[in-house]
Each structure stands twice: as structure tokens, then as C-alpha cells.
User: Which sequence fits this backbone?
């Protein structure tokens, strides 16, 4: 059973919890696509941005595809997503619905109730309430959930607490990888262990970058290919001595942007607002 698939299609309305990005026009957007949600009934279509794309026409959502409107089945599952500290919405899901251990994906969905953190600017609240007149706005997330209780399904599992081990291993691995790209070339060549490690890692990253470039089908793949290319440039930098710093610029810039964004979000009274796109295609992908 997957997080959002595995059960037979369900019948009837299911209430789930999810989060949104909000743009400066007051439009609710999914985290991973620009497919705006509208007031009232939304109907999902299939064109997943990442992952396995079920080719050919099929019902939405399909068990072997990633399409459909997503909603978490419980508060515990939902709050693992950082964006829920800013926006939470209770949504009704119906039509074809598949459920997994974390939540559901559905063909149709509607925003019933919406909570925004107190940090949300009042002009944004006003725009959201104008755009979504049938959604009830709440100042208190607890009150919202008390009046719109989430549907409990047997397939939902309590999220396990995050384990520290894999996170530490990932941090050590990334630090070692970045360290290899900082060593002088003579030092890499001077040690059999370092040289072997550098060749293996660089070869693996080059292969991964090539595979991502060739296999790029969506925004997620493209972003991953971009990051991998930056890592590859970083690893190749020692070959070019002092001029190798040019190759380190893309990754350094990426790290600076990521750290800056993280620090920005720590500011008190911070609320993220997305700049509105001029034209936004309606689609219900990973929506
Ligand atoms: Zn699909």
C-alpha cells in the first residue's frame, strides 16, 4: 500500500486536510504545480509533473499514476509538510477516490474551510475570501477541524517519528562529496583511496546527470538534473586548479539561495506569498 494509493476506489465524500501556496491575487495553488484551485467543484485531469506517467487515457485518479487531488487523512500526516504552518484547508473529495496510508487522491475536490496563519497580511485574506466565497475562513485551526472533522479511514497509518540515523548519514555523505571537490588535484592524485573515491563519485554523478538530462520529462526531473550538473561541476573543479572556482559558483549560489530562503522563513510574522502568473493553465496535477 502506498501513501496515496492502494485501496479500492471509495464511494462518498471524504474530508481531508491539505495545504496550499497562495499567490498575490489570493489564488490557492498546489505545492508542486501551478494548477489553481477554484471556488466550488474542482475536477482533476492527468499530467503528473514527475514520476511514472501512466500513458494513454485513464480514469483520474489511477492507482498506477500520480494524478488526482491530494489530501492528507490526518493532522499528524499533514503537519509533516512545512507549508501547513502557514495554510491549512479542509477539502471534500469525491468521485473516484483512492486512499493510502497517508491520505487520498480524488477526481473531484472542493475547499470547505481554510485557515491561514496570523502572519498572513489582511489584504491577502480579503483577496482569498473574495476568490473562495464558499470556503469558510478560520482564524483558529483547531476550531476549523472541530467543525469540519476529517474522515477516518482504516487504511490510514499514524506517521512514524522521523529517524535521525538516515538524516545524519545523508549529511555526512553530502559533506564528504562536497569535500572531495574542494581538495587540490595533487592531493587527490597522491592518495589511492581519495583518487578511487573521486573517480567513482564523479563517474556516478556524471552518469546520474546524463540519465536525468535524457530522461527529463517534467519540472521535477529538470530541477534534479540542474542540481546534479552543479554537483558534477563542483567535483570537476579540482582538475582546473584556481580557475576551478568558476565551476563551484553554480552550487555555491544554490546553497546561498537555499540558506537565505530558510533564514527568511524563520523571521517572525513571515508569510510566503507567491507572485501571480499572468496566465495560469488549469490542471489538477498533484493538486
Ligand atoms: Zn494519471
Assistant:
Amino acid at each position: 500500500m502506498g501513501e496515496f494509493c492502494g485501496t479500492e476506489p471509495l464511494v462518498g465524500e471524504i474530508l481531508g486536510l491539505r495545504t496550499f501556496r497562495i499567490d498575490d491575487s489570493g489564488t490557492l495553488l498546489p505545492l508542486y504545480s501551478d494548477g489553481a484551485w477554484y471556488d466550488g467543484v474542482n475536477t482533476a485531469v492527468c499530467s503528473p509533473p514527475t514520476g511514472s506517467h501512466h500513458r494513454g487515457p485513464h480514469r483520474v485518479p489511477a492507482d498506477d499514476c500520480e494524478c488526482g487531488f491530494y489530501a492528507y487523512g490526518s493532522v499528524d500526516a499533514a503537519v509533516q509538510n512545512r507549508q501547513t504552518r502557514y495554510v491549512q484547508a479542509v477539502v471534500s473529495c469525491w468521485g473516484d477516490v483512492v486512499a493510502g496510508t497517508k491520505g487520498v487522491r480524488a477526481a473531484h475536490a472542493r475547499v470547505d474551510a481554510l485557515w491561514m496563519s496570523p502572519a498572513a497580511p489582511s489584504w491577502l485574506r480579503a483577496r482569498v475570501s473574495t476568490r473562495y466565497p464558499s470556503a469558510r475562513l478560520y482564524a483558529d485551526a483547531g476550531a476549523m477541524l472541530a467543525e469540519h472533522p476529517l474522515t477516518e479511514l482504516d487504511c490510514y497509518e499514524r506517521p512514524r517519528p522521523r529517524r535521525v540515523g538516515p538524516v545524519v548519514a545523508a549529511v555526512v555523505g553530502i559533506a564528504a562529496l562536497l569535500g572531495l571537490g574542494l581538495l587540490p588535484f595533487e592531493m587527490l592524485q597522491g592518495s589511492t583511496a581519495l583518487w578511487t573515491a573521486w573517480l567513482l563519485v564523479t563517474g556516478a554523478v556524471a552518469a546520474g546527470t546524463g540519465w536525468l538530462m535524457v530522461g527529463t520529462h517534467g519540472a521535477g526531473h529538470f530541477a534534479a538534473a540542474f542540481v546534479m550538473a552543479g554537483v558534477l561541476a563542483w567535483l570537476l573543479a579540482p582538475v582546473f586548479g584556481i580557475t576551478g572556482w568558476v565551476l563551484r559558483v553554480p552550487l555555491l549560489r544554490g546553497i546561498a539561495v537555499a540558506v537565505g530562503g530558510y533564514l527568511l522563513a524563520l523571521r517572525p510574522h513571515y508569510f510566503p506569498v507567491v507572485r501571480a502568473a499572468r496566465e495560469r493553465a488549469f490542471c489538477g496535477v498533484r493538486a
